[in-house]
Amino acid sequence: MILSLQGCMAVGKTTAVRYLQENAPYINISYEDIGDVVAEIKRRGLNKNVYEDYLEIQKLWLKNEVVRYAKASEHKCSIMDFGAEEIEFYTINYPKSIGADWEVENALKKELDEVRSCMPDRILFMDASDEVLRAHKQNDTTRSRNSFEHHLTHMMPLKRQWFLGKDNVDLLMVDDLTPEEVGIRVREWCDALYKVPGTGRGTGR
User: Fold this and answer.
1) Cα distances (angstroms) measured from residue 137 to each of 62, 66, 128, 147
2) pLDDT tens digits for 63-105?
3) Confidence of residue 146 (pLDDT cuts 50, 70, 90)
4) For residues 167 and 122, is the Cβ–Cβ distance under 8 A?
5) Fewest CB atoms within 10 A around its CB: which of 42, 58, 77, 154?
6) Which residues of 42-75 are buried (b: 16+ CB within 10 A; e: fewer)?
7) Residue 143: its pLDDT value, please?
8) Under a CB-based contact definition with an 8 Å cutoff, are residues 150 and 105 in contact?
9) Cα gap 4→54, rounded to integer Å
10) Is the separation of the CB atoms in 186 and 20 below 8 Å?
11) Other Cβ atoms closer than 10 A to 124
């Protein structure tokens, strides 16, 4: 079973998976693995706001996600801090967020087809008000999140519309939850979906 956490930057996805790592060892954690892709983009001097470069950049990200999904599939249950659904969404929608009318679907058909075969079984969309998300971002000094405002203002309206209409997406509002409460809610969501081998039921932990 492949599960995925979705939402805005600073909504608490990483906090949630760290909680799972400590309190739900029966679930494999698959973090975003971006180092090699970022290094290759820098090496080639690619600019995501140039159409031809954008296609090359997204080929790298799409291929990376297929490899990541294969590794996650080796475990009985894995949860992803953003999964293949994120790279599909971003590939199609980032140009719209900068006002560009780029042809992406056909230009990247092969790569998109491959990543669409790697979708999670179920997605938990974590959301909060803009005020709470900005507060989370400001309070987290461990990350710069330079694209946060663009993501919040231009990507999130598209993302909410994209995901909340799907039939395999659940919603968790985190506005009034502490970090520990967020972790507990995410673990409960996982436990309700993942059946421990040999028991025929959720973990109940």
Assistant:
1) 27, 29, 12, 11
2) 999 999 999 999 999 999 999 999 999 999 999 999 999 999 9
3) confident
4) no
5) 42
6) eeeebeeeeeeebbebbebbbebbeebbeebeee
7) 67
8) no
9) 25
10) yes
11) 22
Distance CA 46, CA 65 (A): 19
pTM, entire model: 0.88
Q: What pLDDT band is residue 49 in, cutting at 50, 70 and 90?
A: very high
DSSP string, 148-178: HHHIIIIIHHHHHHHHTTSTTEEEEE-TT--
Q: Identify which of 85, 91, 159 has the alpha carbon closest to the alpha carbon of residue 127.
A: 159
Q: What is the residue whose two structure tokens read 């009318």?
A: 101
Domains of the chain: 2-193 (3.40.50.300)
Sign of the Cα pseudo-torsion (104, 37, 52, 96, in order): positive
Among the ranges given (13-27, 74-88, 114-128, 184-198), the one the predictor scored with the smallest mean pLDDT: 184-198
What's the confidence (pLDDT) of residue 199? Answer: 42
Distance separating the N- and C-terminal Cα atoms of the chain: 18
Mean of pLDDT over the chain: 90
The count of residues in the chain is 205
> Is residue 66 within 8 Å of residue 114, measured between CB atoms?
yes
